[in-house]
């Protein structure tokens, strides 16, 4: 090298450079401050001369094939970052790490990484005397022996401490609790023993704690419940005992992995598990947990992997697990579970691995869904199971079994009919007794299953208590109610009759809903119109209750009334599922009703999610029923309700003309789809002066699609993510097929939201294309057991 005497920055990293480094580097570059040859194929030893460059601030040799010893660093008193990871440095013996002690006088050191080398010898105690400026220390994947020094607590500004995959012995120092800025602590795959110090509860900034594959004993410290920022906790493969602390399961921040497997934990799975609404993987397998699986487990709606095997759990799998619609792996083998296999497992389209073997399940096994895939389903060791596909080699369901089932069915039918008759008789008696009282003149939707009075609605909503209020809009208020007659949970929409448009909305909704039935439309149970006890008119619509609120709440993390203030996010597959649900509902309204129906106000707040996260379109107060002769599915009638729809979602033609069309719903759906993927409302303040959500997306396709997706999905990728977002994490983010699917969904949204109605897709085509894309996304992929997150990657400091 020539004429480099004045160079300050020398960076030839991330190339394919081979060969060795010259021994006169320092002589040729005496003023160099930033020196990087990382990520090449350079071999040989590090030249001694480079460590004499007095102005070096950053020195990077990572990811090469360098070997030998590291020279003294004593003269590099300005060094801030040293990266030596990913080489063959050291000889696996004592003395390899002596060079570290030459850094004790450096007062500026911020980041040090020697990970993935061949360094051996005792853990240098001199590290405890490093400058308190040190923020990241990575020494993983070496052959370092000895104890973690107690004085490690002196490094009070440490944010990353990675000691994984060495041969460290002894306890975790109590003074680790002094590192109050620590974000990441990896010490897995060592020989650490003793208890986890309760001082670890002082690490309130901790986000990732990984101590698996050690010999740690005792109970899980309750103080971990103070670590409110934890997103990943792995204590698996130790000798921990005692119950699982409710404080741990109360950490709603956990979003990647909670693994307590392969210990000796006892007791029941605490009901506080319901707070893990954002968790992707829960692993409590191979312990001695017992009792019933809590119903609250169904609240963990983001779960993708659930491992319960090797415990003593009893009785049936709770039906509330049906809400885990994004589940890809469920292992409940080697327990004492019994009764029939829950039918909702058949409906789990994302399920790729189901192991129920060696339990006490009985009855007929399904032949649909995951149960028809022999490579995904394991049910051996359940001697009372029968049926299923031939490849499972289960016994045929004999007539005795069938007759028992038939008898049970007959008894059930008789009991149900008797119960319904009894309830009907009681209601009839009550009605006759109150016939003379002044009560509402009730109008019910045809074919309604419920006949409710004003009084029953009043009692169900606790007198229309503010605590029961779950929503409000321009036409009225929505209350949660519980019917006394059968305990059913309902949603009660009370029309605000001071708004002159509310009565019209009531009639429109009654007419629209009386003859339509679809799994993706909110079911109306009854409608009441009459007079209350003060002589005032009242109008009420009663719906089935959607326990997971609206799509609006989930997309924008808005907190519903009386809901705990926890972040609620939909993973990518859940968003696609909801998009398919809404498309099915619109296709039904436009093409499969006796007379086509235009919704006229499709938006996230009008898409409700049930307990299984299935999407349902609601609020038909602005709907238009088309007459049979309107073959183009449009009408020129003027709306008595004014402008149809909501700003941002209403098609542009509704603002200039009175024509209503199914194409208008398609436009709203397109905007909804773009919003679901970008996380941006069409009314976002950035969309002005000619820029719209449609144009924003269009400008990014096809090459910048990752730049416009919802940042929440990207955050999961940055944090390490889970296989919940199978198209937006890990290597898949750069996978052409997955990006192709993402682009395809965006294109559907763009086509649907085209300015010209004639250019928009038909909802039948939308359903076909979206289902095809979803099938491609859910194509069976290899499931990864255990932790495959940031700590599996090579840490290089900060």
From TrEMBL:
> What are the transmembrane regions?
411-432
Q: What is its EC number?
A: 2.7.11.1
Cross-referenced SMART domains: LRR_TYP (SM00369), S_TKc (SM00220)
The alphabetical list of record keywords is: ATP-binding, Cell membrane, Glycoprotein, Kinase, Leucine-rich repeat, Membrane, Nucleotide-binding, Phosphoprotein, Receptor, Repeat, Serine/threonine-protein kinase, Signal, Transferase, Transmembrane, Transmembrane helix
Q: Name the residues that bind ATP.
A: 493
Molecular function (Gene Ontology), one example: protein serine/threonine kinase activity
Q: Where in the cell? A: Cell membrane
Answer yes or no on keyword Nucleotide-binding.
yes
Matches recorded under Pfam families: LRR_1, Pkinase
Q: How does it sit in the membrane?
A: Single-pass membrane protein
Domain Protein kinase stretches:
464-778
Listed GO cellular component terms?
Answer: plasma membrane
Q: Which InterPro entries match?
A: Kinase-like_dom_sf (IPR011009), Leu-rich_rpt (IPR001611), Leu-rich_rpt_typical-subtyp (IPR003591), LRR_dom_sf (IPR032675), Plant_receptor-like_S/T_kinase (IPR051809), Prot_kinase_dom (IPR000719), Protein_kinase_ATP_BS (IPR017441), Ser/Thr_kinase_AS (IPR008271)
> Main subcellular localization, coarse class?
membrane
Q: Which reaction does it catalyse?
A: L-threonyl-[protein] + ATP = O-phospho-L-threonyl-[protein] + ADP + H(+); L-seryl-[protein] + ATP = O-phospho-L-seryl-[protein] + ADP + H(+)
* PANTHER family listed in its UniProt record: OS04G0122200 PROTEIN, SERINE-THREONINE_TYROSINE-PROTEIN KINASE CATALYTIC DOMAIN-CONTAINING PROTEIN
State what protein this is by name: non-specific serine/threonine protein kinase
Q: What is the organism of origin for this protein? A: Gossypium darwinii (Darwin's cotton)
Q: What does UniProt list as this organism's lineage?
A: Eukaryota, Viridiplantae, Streptophyta, Embryophyta, Tracheophyta
């Amino acid at each position: 090298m020539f004429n480099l005497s004045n160079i300050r920055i020398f960076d030839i990293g991330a190339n394919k450079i081979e060969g060795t480094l010259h021994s006169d580097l320092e002589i040729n570059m005496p003023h160099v401050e930033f020196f990087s040859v990382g990520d090449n194929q350079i071999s040989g030893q590090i030249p001694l001369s480079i460590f004499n460059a007095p102005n070096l601030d950053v020195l990077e040799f990572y990811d090469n094939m360098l070997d030998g010893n590291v020279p003294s660093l004593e003269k590099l008193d300005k060094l801030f970052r040293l990266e030596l990871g990913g080489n063959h440095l050291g000889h696996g013996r004592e003395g390899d790490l002596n060079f570290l002690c030459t850094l004790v006088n450096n007062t500026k050191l911020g980041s040090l990484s020697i990970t993935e080398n061949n360094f051996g010898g005792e853990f240098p105690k001199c590290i405890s005397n490093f400058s308190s400026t040190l923020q990241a220390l990575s020494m993983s994947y070496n052959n370092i022996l000895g104890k973690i020094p107690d004085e490690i607590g002196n490094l009070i500004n440490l944010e990353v401490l990675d000691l994984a995959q060495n041969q460290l012995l002894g306890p975790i120092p109590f003074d680790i609790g002094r590192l109050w800025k620590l974000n990441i602590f990896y010490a897995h795959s060592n020989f650490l023993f003793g208890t986890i110090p309760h001082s670890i509860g002082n690490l309130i900034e901790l986000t990732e704690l990984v101590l698996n594959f050690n010999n740690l004993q005792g109970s899980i410290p309750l103080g971990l419940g103070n670590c409110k920022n934890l997103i990943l906790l792995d204590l698996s493969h130790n000798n921990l005992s005692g119950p699982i602390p409710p404080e741990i399961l109360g950490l709603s921040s956990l979003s990647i992995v909670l693994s307590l497997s392969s210990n000796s934990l006892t007791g029941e799975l605490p009901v506080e598990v319901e707070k893990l609404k954002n968790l992707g993987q829960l692993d409590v397998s191979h312990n001695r947990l017992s009792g019933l699986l809590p119903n609250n487990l169904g609240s963990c709606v983001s779960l993708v992997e659930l491992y319960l095997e090797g415990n003593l759990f009893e009785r049936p799998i709770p039906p509330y697990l049906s809400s885990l619609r994004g589940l890809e792996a469920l292992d409940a083998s080697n327990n004492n579970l019994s009764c029939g296999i829950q039918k909702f497992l058949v409906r789990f389209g994302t399920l790729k691995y189901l192991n129920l073997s060696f339990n006490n399940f009985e009855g007929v096994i399904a032949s649909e869904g995951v149960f028809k895939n022999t490579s995904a389903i394991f049910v051996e060791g359940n001697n009372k199971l029968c049926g299923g596909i031939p490849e499972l080699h289960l016994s045929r369901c004999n007539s005795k079994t069938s007759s028992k089932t038939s008898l049970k069915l007959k008894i059930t039918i008789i009991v149900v009919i008797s119960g319904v008759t009894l309830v009907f008789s009681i209601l009839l008696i009550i009605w006759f007794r109150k016939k003379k009282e002044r009560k509402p003149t009730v109008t019910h939707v045809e074919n309604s299953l419920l006949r409710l009075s004003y009084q029953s609605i009043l009692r169900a909503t606790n007198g229309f208590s503010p605590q029961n209020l779950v929503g409000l809009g321009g036409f009225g208020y929505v209350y949660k109610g519980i019917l006394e007659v059968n305990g059913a949970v309902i949603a009660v929409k009370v029309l605000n009759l001071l708004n002159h448009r509310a009565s019209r909305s009531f009639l429109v909704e009654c007419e629209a809903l009386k003859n339509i039935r679809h799994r993706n439309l909110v079911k109306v149970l009854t409608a009441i119109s009459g007079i209350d006890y003060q002589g005032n008119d009242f109008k009420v619509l009663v719906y089935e209750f959607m326990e997971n609120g609206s799509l609006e709440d989930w997309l924008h993390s808005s907190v519903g009334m009386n809901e705990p203030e926890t972040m609620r996010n939909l993973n990518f597959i859940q968003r696609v599922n909801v998009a398919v649900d809404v498309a099915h509902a619109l296709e039904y309204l436009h093409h499969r009703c006796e007379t086509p129906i235009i919704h006229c106000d499709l938006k996230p707040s009008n898409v409700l999610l049930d307990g299984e996260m299935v999407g349902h379109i609601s609020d038909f107060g602005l709907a238009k029923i088309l007459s049979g002769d309107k073959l183009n599915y449009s009408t020129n009638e003027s709306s008595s309700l004014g402008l149809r729809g909501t700003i941002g979602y209403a098609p542009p033609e509704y603002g200039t003309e009175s024509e209503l069309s199914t194409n208008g719903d398609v436009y709203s759906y397109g905007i909804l789809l773009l919003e679901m993927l970008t996380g941006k409302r069409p009314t976002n303040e950035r969309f002005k002066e000619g820029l719209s959500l449609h144009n924003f997306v269009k400008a990014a396709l096809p090459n910048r699609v990752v730049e416009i997706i919802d940042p929440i999905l990207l955050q999961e990728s940055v944090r390490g993510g889970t296989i919940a977002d199978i198209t937006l994490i890990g290597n898949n983010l750069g996978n052409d097929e997955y990006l192709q699917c993402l682009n395809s969904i965006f294109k559907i949204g763009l086509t649907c939201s085209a300015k010209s109605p004639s250019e928009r897709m038909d909802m039948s085509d939308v359903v076909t294309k979206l289902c095809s894309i979803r099938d491609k996304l859910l194509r069976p992929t290899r499931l990864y057991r255990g932790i495959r997150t940031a700590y599996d990657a090579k840490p290089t400091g900060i």
